[in-house]
Specification:
This protein has about 180 residues and is of the alpha+beta class.
Length: about 180
């Protein structure tokens, strides 16, 4: 997180749905998160997905970004170079989307699907989407610290007592990592 990145508001697409897809031929059979992004106004992701139908591969660079001294949200910034140039940012509420972020980090990939509020994976599993690799080099050094704080806050809000908090946090993080780390054979 040593590099600074400037994200303009027009770079963001709202996360309106999520899910996961597993395929034994993709990401070593791991579960891969699917992000459904609101493309009703900004159609650039739709154009990119349509172009990927013709050109199988594209070039993308990714970086995780956090606001200085504010770990309530994190952003995944994607710089597409081929088949078109596009900068795209997705903001995640850490408390709400911690498991989803963990899934992206573990699977080292994410599906991006254009959509609108109310869209779900189960409604149309074959909806157009692209698979974006988030390579190991796209590190997120502060993630474990941010995750611990978010899980602690969530568990306290749910009424977990201070005595049981440490064990509950460990167990929840372990279960989350285990779910995202499983592989299809």
């Amino acid at each position: 997180m040593k590099n600074k990145v400037f994200i303009e508001s027009m770079d963001y697409l709202d996360l309106v749905g999520d899910g996961a897809i597993a395929n034994s031929k993709t990401a070593d059979g791991r579960l891969i998160p699917v992000l459904i992004l609101d493309t009703r106004i900004k159609k650039t992701l739709e154009h990119l997905v349509n172009m990927h139908d013709d050109a199988e591969l594209g070039d993308v660079t990714s970086i995780w970004a956090v606001k200085r001294f504010n770990y309530k949200s994190v952003s995944l910034v994607l710089y597409f170079e081929n088949p078109i140039e596009l900068k795209l940012a997705i903001s995640f509420d850490v408390t709400k989307n911690a498991s989803l972020i963990e899934g992206i980090l573990i699977s080292k990939a994410v599906y991006l699907q254009p959509g609108s509020p109310g869209d779900r994976i189960r409604h149309n599993i074959n909806a157009p989407k692209i698979l974006v690799e988030i390579p190991k080099e796209t590190t997120f050094e502060k993630w474990d610290k941010i995750l611990n704080k978010a899980i602690t806050k969530k568990l306290k809000k749910e009424g977990v007592r201070r005595v049981a908090l440490k064990d509950a946090k460990k167990e929840l993080i372990s279960i989350t990592k285990d779910i995202w780390g499983k592989r299809l054979k």
